[in-house]
Amino acid sequence: MVLALYRRYRPDTLLTVIGQEHVTEPLARAIDSGKVHHAYLFNGPRGCGKTSTARIMARSLNCEKGPTSNPCGKCESCIALAPGGAGTVDVVEIDAATHGGVDDARELREQVGYVPIKDKYKIYIIDEAHQLSTSANNAMLKMIEEPPSHLRFIFATTEPEKMLGTIRSRTHNYAFRLVNREVLAKHLAEICKRENIKCDDAALKAIATASGGSVRDALSLLGQFSAGMDEKGLSTEYVEWQLGLTPLGILDELGNSVLENDLAKALEVIRNACTQGIEPHRLLSDFLNYLGIRIREADTNDRDAMSILVTAATSVSVSLSQLKSSSNPELSLDLAIARLFVQPATQIQTNAPKQSEPVTKTEVKPVEKKLEKPQPVKAVVKKDITDVADLEVRWKDIMGELSRVSRVAWLAYMDSKPLELNQTVLVVGLKDASKLMIASEMKHIENLKNVLVSAVSLNVSIEFKHMELTNTEEFDQPNTNDESVEYKDGLSVAMEALGAVKIHEFENGGN
């Protein structure tokens, strides 16, 4: 039987514990200076080195040349306590999940009075310590409060808040944390080199990401994938499919189509992905993570790209929660992606009578052509704009006009609302405080000012502030009965982008 990688590469000294320098370095100094406490509490997520560090502590304290932070590895105690060693009678590991009762604690209390048989210290490592019963905690309290000089306790837990407060206060607490993805990928690369495993850097990063920062989980995945790999080794494509992830190439295509405002390409990408068997929820979830990485790696000076990425990530996050309860996941995925490209299309009202012609259902006309028709609006608006209330009535039309001038400016102001207006200054409130910086950029302000002048003959300075809403106050939501606004669902947007034309419309149950 092959020994699992996470057991074969278990650290044997404090220096070989990866990603926990904030814990191992202080412990090493305490051991070397002879300031070892009688009880320690190691807490943190699973698989990050708590139990391994506890065993190393026992090895360091009982080494013939110790206590030392660098055990010799040659004495009887070091060999017995090394990874894969037989252990010693003076170092006892207790799993509180199965031995956490009061009877176990009483038995332990009877044993601690005996001096070590071979080693310098009698050390108890109590794993999953949060599962000790209240009675067991109380039974152990006296031992921890006034222990014999030869006794040391090391508690390890993933839930320190469940530990008895009186016990926590009598221990030295060290918080372990998940290992950085880059550090973990480098560690995996070193192991692959020792094991003669061919691998791609991107594949190791995917494993490190999937493990969530747990070293043990990462080594388990590496062992699983290396056991079933072919002569090509651990390729990125192989690892992505084994993990059930959306291939990075698909995410790159989808992300670039969003930045390029190419809906047709985006729909084609997700259609091909679903054809390959990628589950819609997984695809959207991976795309959200991908957008997060692009945001972190993006040039902060490129405000346009940053604004598009942030808005897209926000929309995908909302769609992701809705997709879970969808009865038609693939359609919901199409709509979620199409929603990233939707802009409000406005039709400017006039005083002219409405045309009596019915709307032709067999033709999808481009929105831009509708908006470019000259409309005698300005004279009416010039007369009506007298205060902020009048401006608020026209604000949706103004935002629609702005969306044709600059998509990025519209993204910055889409959830805005006019708050105050005088002869020289217009104060605009923003629902999202994170957009204040983008909204205050001069090029976006100029676009908004130009639209205000052309649409409502309003030439003023513009100031922005975050508008905090009360429970009863909220921004105006679009009115689906408002004839001045043309609403488009995801299907209409997709048809427009693909140049599709409706040939015939069937009624329910028709042939």
What does this structure look like?
The chain is of the alpha/beta class and 511 residues long. The protein folds into four domains: 5-175, Rossmann fold, CATH 3.40.50.300; 181-243, Orthogonal Bundle (Helicase, Ruva Protein, domain 3); 252-341; 345-350 and 361-471 and 483-497, GMP Synthetase, Chain A, domain 3 (2-Layer Sandwich). It contains 23 helices and ten strands. The strands form three sheets. The protein has a five-stranded parallel sheet with strand order 2-3-4-1-5, with helices on one face. The longest helix has 21 residues, at 303-323.
Strand element count: 10
Shape: elongated
Q: What's the main sheet like?
A: 5 strands, parallel
Measured as a percent range, the helix fraction is 40-55%
Please identify, by name, the CATH architecture of the largest domain. 3-Layer(aba) Sandwich
Instruction: Work out the count of structural domains.
Output: 4
In percent, how much strand structure appears in the residues?
5-15%
Mean pLDDT equals 81
Number of helices: 23
Kindly report the CATH topology of the largest domain.
Rossmann fold
* Radius of gyration over C-alpha positions, nearest whole angstrom: 33 Å
Class computed from helices, strands and strand pairing: alpha/beta
Major sheet strand order: 2-3-4-1-5
**Low-confidence regions:** 344-365, 367-384, 470-488
CATH class of the largest domain: Alpha Beta
Annotated CATH homologous superfamily of the largest domain: P-loop containing nucleotide triphosphate hydrolases
**Distance between the terminal alpha carbons, to the nearest Å?**
65 Å
